[in-house]
Structures are given as C-alpha cells and as structure tokens.
Specification:
The chain is built from seven helices and six strands. By secondary structure, it is an alpha/beta fold. It starts with a helix and ends with a strand.
C-alpha cells in the first residue's frame, strides 16, 4: 500500500472509528496502441471494459498482507475489478455491484488527430465534464451514483468498523468526494496508478 499501510495497520480500526479503503484495480489484460485516432480509442474503450486482470499485474504485498483475512470486499461487476479483488483478498466474499462501475467515457470524434491512449482518456474526461456524453451516463448522474456508493460503504463501516472497495480510478475519486462531504478525512491521493489505494476515516 502503499502509502497508507501504517495508517490502516492490521485493518482493525480503533473502536468508534470508521475506515473506508478505496482501491483501484490492477492492470487489465489489454494491449495499448502507442498512438491511435478517435476510432481506435473508441475500440480501446470497449476492449478495456471487457478485459480481465493481467496475470502479471500482481497486487503490492503490503495490500495483500493487510486485506488477506478480510471476510468481505466490495467490488464492481467489471471483470478487471472482480479479479483484482480476488487477488487481493482470496478468502473474502466478493460483493459485486454494478453501482461501483467506472464513470464512463466516450471517444471524441476528432478527425486526423492521433494520440496515445492516456492522452485520449484525459481529453475524453475533460469533454465529459464539459457536456460531451453521447448515450452514456452524464457527470451529474455519476456523482449521484457515487453518493449512493458512499452511503453503502459507510453503512458497512458503521457495522464492522471497516469497508473496502476494489473498483475504478475516477469513480473512486468521486466516491471520495462524497465521503469528504459526509465528514470523512482523506489519507493518500487518487492517482492514475493501478492498485492505487486511498484511506478515508471518521471518528
């Protein structure tokens, strides 16, 4: 874990403290074209959504040591997230829910332009916030969904002291904002890094 191993300790928070850990999935088993046009990026989005976890993308030992004994872990129903959760916590019950899927992207129709996939993703996310979301979930609905996800995780933490979600980078960020609005403190940062983890605490 990166940066939060000391903060979460053995994953048993002190009495009265609520802890929620948001983890991004590992690297999907998908080839990345060095440079592509908007049609290629559109195909990449579809392939990314179908891809499972790359077998060579192993979770950090710090994370598996901390999560290995968990009884239950929340995850989205996407293959890459589900398989990542299983790799992190092989003994846990996986609670998969489409509520936790990534905030979607649409490939911008910009002819002649060729960029790397990460650059296309940045442009697509900016345009998504600016109003380009043809036939996909718009930002307002994604934020509302993140609020519902936060409430589910809080309910679990109120019962057990701890809730762990293995899901997706940007949607984890949106959930984090919802948790902060509900009084949680953030440790760590949401980064475009596979297996990235961020801790939220209250109490």
């Amino acid at each position: 874990m990166a940066d939060n191993a000391a903060a979460t300790g053995n994953m048993k928070p002190p009495a009265g403290r609520l802890q929620i850990v948001l983890i991004r999935h590992g690297q999907p088993a998908i080839a990345i074209s060095p440079r592509t046009g908007h049609q290629g990026f559109g195909r990449y989005i579809d392939q990314y959504e179908e891809a499972g976890l790359d077998p060579q993308s192993l979770p950090p030992a710090e994370l598996t040591d901390l999560l290995g004994e968990l009884k239950a872990v929340f995850t989205s129903d996407r293959k890459r997230a589900h398989e990542s959760a299983r790799a992190l916590a092989p003994k846990a019950e996986l609670i998969a829910d489409p509520l936790f899927v990534e905030a979607p992207l649409a490939s911008p129709r910009i002819p002649l332009l060729r960029m790397t996939v990460p650059k296309w993703a940045v442009v697509a996310r900016i345009l998504w916030h600016a109003g380009y979301h043809p036939e996909i979930e718009p930002p307002a609905k994604a934020r509302a969904r993140a609020g519902k996800a936060a409430d589910i995780l809080i309910a679990c933490a109120e019962k057990d002291g701890l809730a762990v979600l293995v899901a997706h980078g940007y949607f984890n960020f949106l959930i984090g904002r919802a948790l902060q609005a509900r009084g949680f403190r953030q440790s760590g940062s949401h980064r475009a890094k596979f297996w990235n983890d961020v801790l939220y605490e209250k109490g």
